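agent> fetching stored inputs for the pyridoxal-5'-phosphate docking request
agent> found them:
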Amino acid sequence: MTTTHEADEDLRNQDILIYVNGELKPRAEATVSVYDSGFMLGDGMWEGMRLYDGVWAFFDEHMDRFFNSCKAVSLDVGMDKDGIAEAMRMTAEANNMHTDVHCRLMLTRGVKVKPFQHPSLSQSGPTLVIIMEHSKPVEKLSSQGIRLATVPQVRGLPMSQDAKFNSHSKLNCVIACLQAEQAGADEGLMLDPHGFVNTTNACNFFIVRRGEVWTSTGDYCMNGVTRQKVIDLCRADGIPVFEKNYSLYETYGADEAFLTGTFGAQTLVSEIDGKSIGNGEQPVTERIRALYKQAIADDIAANS
Ligand SMILES: Cc1ncc(COP(=O)(O)O)c(C=O)c1O
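agent> prediction call returned; pasting tokens
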């Protein structure tokens, strides 16, 4: 089995320092209370970011999503974007990290005074944790590709739990992932409530058909930073790109398919429901990969 978040083994990750509410703690001592609302209820938001040559790629876009999500659930971050940047700088410096690093920034509503749901029971402020790991996605992810299985678990309507929340509660995605594993695949391809192809359990999903790039309307999936970059880069480069409804019919018959996410950038999809995708050539995906690499280089140049 391959996962989209597979990285080369790096023993240095055993000795990392983890930021917990302003303190840097060795991995084994970096803990939160069993009364923490993140542990108890999945009541928190997170962001995954990547460090390239000392610059957190697309930091402003990640912060925009993070602060928007926190505001939407009345979760007071307790600091502004600069405060988050400083906490991340501290953590990277303490770990002597400069490039090929992945960060999981997590904020929960904090420790509760009683083990129940009501948000008002969290009375001592939020819990902020920053885990940074040395991380290089395994090479086979970009060359071999991964296998998807369409799963029964769907992405719901935004008035249940909006898929745009990068919340600690990922049970919807975890169930989809389990279903994919049961079906012998690496990741689950999830449909929307109308049966159109939507997203995977951990990444956004694109197909290439007859020279055009298609992805879902965006109504039921994570508003991925990488997803938006790919759309913008296609537009700027003259590659026809459409956010639209399409079904498994068009998906199985696609020439190329790939996933997007901060961790793996663009990950090739080799097979869906046992059907191989395309003829093994991925000229459009390769072009998009090159454009994305350049966009990161531009972001580094503008922010270092
Ligand atoms: C469900 C889901 N889809 C897609 C993504 C990719 O988003 P991004 O490109 O911002 O990393 C994520 C990452 O957090 C995710 O959790």
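agent> quick read of the result: The mean pLDDT is 96.
agent> awaiting further instructions
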